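Run log, item B.
One chain of 286 residues. Sequence copied directly from the ordering sheet:
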Amino acid sequence: MAGAEETVVNRKDLNPEGSPQEAFGARLRGAREKRGLTQDELAERMGYTGRHVSAVETGRKPPTRRFAAGVDTALGTKGTGDTFERACGEIRHGVLLEGFPEYLSYEGRAVEIRVFEVGVIPGLLQTPGYVRALADAAVYRGDISDQQADEWITLLAERQAALIRPVPPALVVIMDESCIRRPVGGWEVMNEQLDRLAEVATLPHAMVLIAPYDIGERRTFNRPVNLLTLADRSVMSYVESQTDGRLEREVAAVAPLFMAYHQLQKHTLPLAASVDLIKLARKGSL
């Protein structure tokens, strides 16, 4: 039967870290092959050609929402916290930095998540009002469109929902004191956000810790850091700056970040003291 399925000889190696579009293609190939489907067989289920599937997998053609929704239906990922349709939205609207779409595909399956944040509450713990205030500010600055803001908010809700499982991941969040000092969206929004932090800190699988200003030079990170441990004990990191993000999966590159995280945790306030400081901020008495 004639088709577009790549042979072993002309099979193109994929680079998931090259761009969000290439990450989508690599993930599509992996999901398809895991289910034992050829490109033609998947295409038939979706109403496309095998050549079209091949072009998306190799990054020659960007996925459309219709295509991505068809993938979700065909592969059984529709309605999950990590759909191909969502990944497509991230590519099309460019809200996320390089490497983050692939990071998200692992975060929803991690058994342990460690986060450090500076200046703003980490996304995993943001309330709807808090993230809306950030999104509206980005629209006002001209950084994103109204549609991108809505995509961003929807993505964050899906990201948080993906962590609600029968056995949730261990979650350690360290925030620089600036995260709770700076009011976002006004005090009503900020008070609700601080209540949320105190609530999460009571969960048996979570720790919310504050790195106070007075640790000074002992703070080991100056930018947001995300560290994952997966069920097979493999690790990865995602480190972000204002304009780009970097995903690392090599142990030699990730291990120093885990060490720096543990060193930072030694200098944070204990859990009870961290919650007390959050509650003081809630009262507006800082």
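Observations after the first pass:
- The first strand starts at residue 112 and ends at 117.
- The domain at 20-93 is CATH 1.10.260.40 (434 Repressor (Amino-terminal Domain)).
Flagged for discussion on Thursday.
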